[in-house]
Amino acid sequence: MSARYTTRILIPSDQDTYRCATQALQRGDVVAIPTETVYGLAGNAFDPDALDKIFIAKERPAMNPLILHIASAQAQTVQDLADAAFIDISEIPEPIIDALNRVINAFWPGPLTLVLPRHTRIPDRLTGGLDTVALRVPAHPVAQKLISSTFPLAAPSANRSGRISPTSALAVYDELKGRIPFIIDGDACEVGVESSILAYIDQGLRLLRPGAISLKELRRESGLKILSTQKHPAEVRAPGMLQSHYAPDTPVKIFRNESELMGLLKNCSTPKAGVLLLEPPSEAELLSLLRSRGYVFEVLSESRDLTEAARQLFATLRKLDQQDLGLLFAQVPPQDQGLGQAIVFFVAIFRKE
Ligand code: AMP
Ligand code: MG
Rounded CA gap, 46 and 68, in Å? Predict the structure, then answer.
């Protein structure tokens, strides 16, 4: 794809930023915006030309649906979503509506996407022809302000398709320079991994993609059974789960603890490898082995905090992916701890073996 735009980075404190971004969106252009999960490439969700521009800039397959980002005022309850003509509420049973209202109350605005039966006015281009629509109320003030002053925005992650999601304006620039007119710099993303996707399909609630909000939290707030993706692979319904969706170029090998890593390193003959650790190495032997081999290593959280590890995950993978490594060893945490399931999911999906 040839460069069409001179891409400008705008800062929220500059008076002209919102005027530039709003005008661009209103004329059907796309703008990369910060959200609390990752940066999004936003366009008018009801303008098919704007949606085309998103798919073209990202080189995204048409069957991969986009998430509709909406204003908090239109999304206090499931009834609000129906009143705003986003969803068809007639297909959702009362107990599910009650559960969803509790979930909305607990997590919106925030890093949770709901997949619900779509209203007929939702464009096919947005949903990839599915009979459901994915909705989210982003908490980031820049995203909220833009949506409130324009219209609902389609906003997939602001990376070229199949690559790591960007968590800073600079990462967006690396991905999309020349392809889009504006990036709003809202600093590093607070959450750092994608939203959790909770769907009402086949008469029940299912977690289609683990993310910032854990299955445990969703079960607690909803008070209902939620099936997890592990039990019900949903690749068809959530194309974002396709193996290559979040993949870096470097092949990735997963490990759980330092002794497993030591075993892998002893058998590794790759001259240039990298190691992604959740916490600082505790074994002196490991540290000296890494140093003697000249292997690059990065620690996601000095204080062993999974929330911080998730925040750093994509930026660190991006950094390691740019170093022409032959192999990357990546540590994953236990799935049942906080953001553990999301980290395992996003790291595991990188794997190309
Ligand atoms: P992203 O690329 O991070 O914006 O996430 C978009 C992802 O949301 C898609 O790749 C799907 O996995 C999921 N998604 C969007 N719309 C739907 C839908 N109607 N049904 C199921 N999953 C959806
Ligand atoms: Mg994405």
Answer: 10
The two three-digit tokens of residue 207, written as one number: 């977690």
With 90 as the cut, is the pLDDT of residue 283 above it?
no
Q: Which of 35, 54, 66, 70 to mutate to test the pocket of ligand 1 (most atoms within 8 A of CB)?
A: 66
The verdict on the CB of residue 238 being under 6 Å from ligand 1 is yes
Query: Which pLDDT band holds residue 248 (cuts at 50, 70, 90)?
Result: low
Beta strands in the chain (DSSP E): 8-10, 31-33, 40-44, 67-69, 112-117, 132-136, 153-154, 182-184, 196-201, 204-209, 226-227, 252-255, 273-277, 296-299, 327-331
Q: pLDDT grade, residue 344 (50/70/90)?
A: confident
Angstrom distance (rounded) from CA 86 to CA 68:
9
Q: How many CB atoms lie within 10 A of CB 293?
A: 15
Confidence grade of residue 236 (pLDDT, cut at 50, 70, 90): very low
DSSP 9-30: EE-TTSTHHHHHHHHHHHTT--
330 SS3 class = strand
39 Cα to the center of ligand 2, angstroms = 9
- Give the residue from 172, 185, 238 showing the smallest Cα distance to 17: 185
* pLDDT single digits (tens) 64-109: 999 999 999 999 999 999 999 999 999 999 999 999 999 999 999 9
Instruction: Please name which ligand lies nearest the alpha carbon of 69.
Output: 1
Q: With H, G, I as helix, E, B as strand and everything else as coil, classify residue 50.
A: helix
- Give the relative orientation of helices 284-293 and 258-266 as an angle to the nearest 10 degrees: 30
Q: What is the 3-state secondary structure (H, E, C) of 209-273?
A: ECCCCCHHHHHHHHCCCEECCCCCCCCCCCHHHCCCCCCCCCCEEEECCHHHHHHHHHCCCCCCE
Model pLDDT, residue 352: 47
- Cβ burial of 155 (10 Å; 0-12, 13-18, 19+) is buried
Which-ligand-closest: CA of 211? 1
Q: Among the listed ranges 2-6, 198-202, 240-244, which one has the minimum average pLDDT value? A: 240-244
Cβ(157) to ligand 1 under 6 A? Answer: yes
